[in-house]
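Sample intake sheet
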Amino acid sequence: MKKLMLLVIFVTLCCACSSQPAPSANAPQEQAEQLIEEAAVEPAVQAAQACAVDAAPQEVVFSASDSQELSGYFYPACAAGAPVVVLMHWAGGNMSDWYEIAAWLQNRGLDNPFENPGEYDWWDPTWFPAIDPAISYNVFIFSFRGCEPFESGCKTFERDGWLLDAQAAMQKAGELEGVDATRIAAIGSSIGADGSVDGCLWLNQQTPGACKGALSFSPGDYLNVPYAEAVKKLGEMNPAVPTWCLADENEITVCNAAAAGNQNFQSILVPNGQHGNMLMRSGLVPLPMQVILDFLDTTVD
């Protein structure tokens, strides 16, 4: 009887073993393909997945010194304590000019969550230069007063008001959660080109050393402060604050006129670049989008 029971148990175990699926002959290949597929994930996306802070832009409402309410968006960097880049638009648009560029500089694999209101190159990130996956900037964009909605652009030239707006944006940037308030950089186009330098100068007069540099695309004394004068004052600070200026052959004289006042000044000619945002186009030499990365590497990294 015991022998019969042992035989039944043995047969049952054998049947159970035979019911298990046999290892696939292709298992090693399938595992290798899976590893290759995982390795193919974009480095920026991998970095984004490792970040504790949500990459989604955060709405920011703040006020200029004359109580004018302003609005913008803050794109958090991957790590706390990263520098912050303030982007200032031209008179033909508003903060939407920077939707794709902000996500690019944030470098966290974020797809722009907003609708691009146009089809110019600065709304097409496919040609933007690659950024080291280890680099992630805080980015702050905002709209100057009277420049909403996008289609209308800035309705009138409010030079004095825009100067206050640029100053307020620089101050607000240093107050945003997770930023290094001692490493702020400003980049602007046309009216924003002057705003970046004027705002950087003002901030350093309030908090010495907070603004590490300003990059201007086609400045023109648009905010009632001579561009060359602001550059000179930044150059007189200790240490001298780097200011870079990009323009085409029709506007490079504004850049060149400021060159003598700052040992860390760079005047960069972009042939056929056109004005302001038009400098942010593919195919230009030097490529202004690469200049942005070089400028940030020099000033805040």
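Comment: The mean pLDDT is 87. The chain has nine helices and eight strands.
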